[in-house]
Amino acid sequence: MKSSVRIFLTTALLSVSATGFAIAATDTPSGVQGAIVVPVAVKLTAGEVRKVDLEQGKLTIKHEALENLDMPGMTMVFKAADAKLLMDVKQGDRILFRAEKGEAGFTVVRLEQVK
Predict the structure, then answer these.
(1) Are residues 63 and 16 located together in one domain of the fold?
(2) Do 71 and 105 fall within a single domain?
(3) How many distinct structural domains can be found in the chain?
(4) Mean predicted confidence (pLDDT) in 71-95
(5) What domain range is 93 assigned to?
(6) What is the pLDDT of residues 85-109, one digit of tens each?
(7) Domain shared by 77 and 105, yes or no
(8) Most distant CA pair in the chain: distance in Å?
(9) What is the three-state SS of the chain?
(10) What is the pLDDT of residues 16-27, one digit of tens each?
(11) Do 60 and 75 belong to one domain?
């Protein structure tokens, strides 16, 4: 039984969800099952900001391949998940970002400037 729990935990920890967390079941000393949430490193993609549209909440990025979306490198427009992401970026900035595909299309959910 313990080996199956270990295999489950290992599998769960190696699985990455869209939120960047893995959830695994654990056995507590009292024998009651619980759950742990472990943050998992999320790969960011390099890109260059080509245009920022604050009114529309969008930005145009020339980016490398987006592995999580199985998309080659190209230049495209993304919606910002939060307008605050656009406040400190300008045309020509080099960035690292994470994009996800949702109902509204491709959305930048995380963005960091490269210094």
Answers:
(1) no
(2) yes
(3) 2
(4) 96
(5) 45-113
(6) 999 999 999 999 999 998 889 999 9
(7) yes
(8) 57
(9) CHHHHHHHHHHHHHCCCCCCEEEEEEECCCCCEEEEEEECCCCCEEEEEEEEECCCCEEEEEECCEHHHCECCEEEEEEECCHHHHCCCCCCCEEEEEEEEECCEEEEEEEEECC
(10) 444 454 554 555
(11) yes
